[in-house]
Amino acid sequence: MAKIPIPKEKWSGKIETVVVGNTPEEGGSRSSQLMLGGDVGMPFLSYEGVGHRQRLAGEILDSVEGIPEISIAPFNELSYDVVEWAKRWKDLGADMICLKLRSLDPEIEDASVEKAVETVNNILNAVDLPLIVYGGGNREKDAHAMEAISNACAGERILLAQAEEDAYKSISAAATANGHGLIAYSNLDVNLAKQMNILLADFGTKLDNVLMDPLMAALGMGLEYSYSVNERIRLAALMSDRMLQTPMCCDLTSAWEAREATEEEESWGDPSERGSWWEATTGLAALVSGANLLIVRHPRSMEILQDAIVELRGE
Amino acid sequence: MATAIEIFKLLPKKNCGKCNFPTCLAFAMQLANQKVKLSDCPFVSDEAKAKLEASSAPPIHLVTIGSGDKKVEIGDETELYRHEKKFFHPTCYAITISDSMSDGEVESKLKRAEELSFERIGQVLTIDLMAVRNDSDNDTRFAEVVSRVAEIGLPLVLMSERPEAMKRAVEEASLEKPLLYAATEGNIEAMSSVAKELACPLALRADDLETLAKLAVHARETGVEDLILDLAPHRAKDLVEKNTIVRKNAIKRTFDGLGYPIILNVCDDERAVLKAMLATMKYGSIVLFDDLNPAHALPLFVLRQNIYTDPQVPIQVRAGLYPVNDPGPDDPILFTTNFSLTYFTVMGDVDKAKVPAWLLVVDTEGLSVLTAYSAGKLTEESVVEALEETSAKEKSTSGILIIPGLISRMSGKLQELSGMRVIVGPRESSGIPKLLRSEEF
Ligand code: B12
Ligand code: SF4
Hints:
The complex is a heterodimer. Chain A has one domain (17-312): Dihydropteroate synthase-like (TIM Barrel, Alpha-Beta Barrel). In chain A, the strands form two sheets. Chain A has an eight-stranded parallel β-sheet with strand order 8-7-6-5-4-3-10-9. A two-stranded antiparallel ribbon of chain A has the order 1-2. Chain A is built from ten helices and ten strands. The relative contact order of chain A is 0.15. In chain A, 37% of the residues lie in helices and 14% in strands. The longest helix of chain A is centred in the last third of the chain and has 19 residues, at 271-289. Chain B has three domains: 4-56, Orthogonal Bundle (3-methyladenine DNA Glycosylase II, Chain A, domain 3); 63-307, Dihydropteroate synthase-like (TIM Barrel), CATH 3.20.20.20; 320-437, Rossmann fold (3-Layer(aba) Sandwich). Helices cover 39% and strands 17% of the residues of chain B. Chain B has helices at residues 4-10, 24-32, 46-56, 103-115, 139-150, 163-172, 188-198, 209-222, 236-251, 272-281, 294-307, 340-352, 369-374, 380-389, 392-395, 411-418, 432-437, and strands at residues 63-65, 72-74, 92-98, 117-120, 123-126, 129-133, 156-159, 179-183, 202-205, 227-230, 262-265, 286-289, 320-324, 333-337, 357-362, 400-403, 421-424. Chain B has an eight-stranded parallel β-barrel with strand order 3-6-7-8-9-10-11-12, surrounded by five helices. In chain B, strands 13-15-14-16-17 form a five-stranded mixed β-sheet, sandwiched between helices. The longest helix of chain B is centred in the middle third of the chain and has 16 residues, at 236-251. Chain B is flat, with a radius of gyration of 28 Å. Chain B starts with a helix and ends with a helix. Chains A and B meet through helix 7, helix 8, helix 9 and helix 10 of A and helix 8, helix 9, helix 10 and helix 11 of B. Cobalamin (B12) sits between chains B (314, 334, 336-337, 339, 341-342, 345-346, 366-371, 373-375, 402-406, 425-426, 428-429, 432) and A (187-189, 192, 217, 221-222, 225, 254).
């Protein structure tokens, strides 16, 4: 019988491995280190070779103002207490915690940098998972906050987010000073993603400290652009474009802003289940197009995506 | 299509000029670009002709199921990644009815299936096929249920291990081109004869690709060309890998015996939705569902719509002034962009307000509000221009212009340039009904 050829590509490039979280041995307090990236082929093709396991970070918000209630309802019973929230994510099997310090935003709470540091410390003490920390979106304030958080977490190897084209120097310096990693954001464009990595490299940041976030547009909100941008980034990286060889991080939580995700409409089925699949579908598209790390808001989406990763990797 | 060099190798290399090109190479280059016909060279050998024809056939066979305006066409894809050109024929979804269900159950399931319909950015998203599964092992019952299901007008998939049941159902329900699902190693002879006799497309199922290729050879030898492959993947991993192997071999022409569309059966699969999503992104042409919850159907259908849009052209609508709810001269003007997603969302909300208004759709080359604004394709000037071009201020003398909340920055300058009272609307268009119904108007 004719043997069917396996059309395996001979890629010359490889995705960097970025390590997050340090155990006591490395000077931190996490229970284990996570490896992200390391891909040597297109996603989930074992005959090309797969990289490290794709990972899921559970999102925590230190202010839930303006966040659609349905998207965080399962944490309501915890009164949105960040420490309890973090513990819940650990119980739910999240690989990482992603803390978004929205309270720093002058238009939300204008909380102090000291308070932000305290929140980070409380979470580090409560759970032993690796951590991602986002600022509140105000450039100057975030710069201060990231520096303070970097110092407070020295040795833990967390991920600081996010470096942007016109605001990367302070966060990059803050990360490098204490051996943390960072997330580099760009706006839905292969060249911008590459430009961001070039800027960071020129500034002296090592690429094995960087994850790129090329903006994952949600289902129904431009998902197709992201799907193709991700694929093109990954293809270029495997074809040896050094400046695109960083692992990819996709934040799925904007899926909850798509109106069709949760609008009450009888013929559209249960809004919570629909919303969770809205987020999970965005996540599946991210995984299949090259994501190495996903930021997830809802426990049900987390569950769907955990199962998807096991299934896709054939574990 | 073959490259110029591949074509050149097959030409006579006389450089005689009879084709109106000075050299065979020049002619080959034109051929590769599909500017001329091979028959322009009087000296090509039959062997070369055959080779070139085979290489210009579509890498994945186009298969039609059903007839009339609801027929579905699948296959004929040319790309591995959508950004390289586009994916042409969207994945089709089918709901399965078992012939061991009672008549009442059949009716209620049919009704549920028909209700799975959503309107989105001007397109209606629905299921595309119905499948009937011969669980009863009774030919009469099968034909009866098939006839009933056929009445709703969608193309059919007949699921049975037994060719005689298929034949009877096709004849009794006078079906045109239903998909026969599925021929396996055990019944390939009989199944391909029936498919040939009834002129129906035939699905082949085997869990290894070698067997599948063998089944395809057999079917072709019987004279059945319209084939669909069920790769019977066990896990999501197998699905992505096998679909990719089949697609890539066909497109790169590294193996030419499996250039057919792919069908996935997720009946009785606890991961039906997950697998359907993956098949939609990764080269699946048909998914057979047992049933589909609307809370899963909507994200799935939207995923398909996203993945299958043309990467070169955002879906746009015509710019212009649109009357909503029968407006008159006293009613306000709202403006938005001509990106279809933006337009349909806003139009829906203005409509919902049940308040008369004028909707000015500004040409932003199909970009959303913020994207267009940051790209400089939605400016105070372009809005004023649109107002003038559509004579909006004559149709509405209200002097009121409502702008999207996301671009409140525009209000001052726009007020100056247009001479209208500019009201900054909500950021989300869902807030429009409340605004329009408020005291201000
Ligand atoms: C998909 C997308 C793209 C796609 C284009 C999609 C398209 N056809 O428009 C692509 C990849 C091409 C793109 C490109 C760019 N993008 Co873009 N893009 C997005 C994304 C992810 C979604 C946009 C979308 O489709 N929204 C959905 C539609 C329905 O929203 P909308 O049009 O705003 O309409 C809503 C409201 O405005 C309101 N509304 C609309 N009309 C009206 C009217 C009235 C009267 C009222 C009251 C309300 C109202 O109702 C609607 C529903 O609520 C957003 C980020 C995000 N998540 O929003 C960024 C975003 C819009 N992009 C952005 C940018 C900067 C760009 C680029 C300039 C950057 C680049 N990469 O080069 C380019 C410019 C394009 C160019 N040069 O041609 C920024 C804008 C920054 C800013 N705040 O100004 C955003 C916000 C991303 C970000 N966070 O940085 N983008
Ligand atoms: S007619 Fe045929 S042989 Fe003569 S130059 Fe053209 S391609 Fe060559």
